[in-house]
Amino acid sequence: MLLQRITIDWNICHGKPCIRGLRYPVEMILELLSSGMTTEEILEDYDDLERDDIFAVLAYATKLSQVKSIHKVLA
Questions:
Q1: What CATH code would you report for 2-65?
Q2: Domain of life, per the record (predicted)?
Q3: In 3-state terms, what secondary structure has residue 6?
């Protein structure tokens, strides 16, 4: 159910995965978390967001990292 909160719409943020059709890209929330911000701090700064949105971002990132293998592409 959490992953349903992540939407992709080519008219919003150039098709980047965002939270609930809002202009909050997944990558932005991940950057905030990796910079040391807590969930509570993010929720205080962005009134539109809900706690489950943060969990959805983490679930989405987890799914993306679950690759079977990585192949080197020759440039």
A1: 1.10.10.10
A2: Bacteria
A3: strand
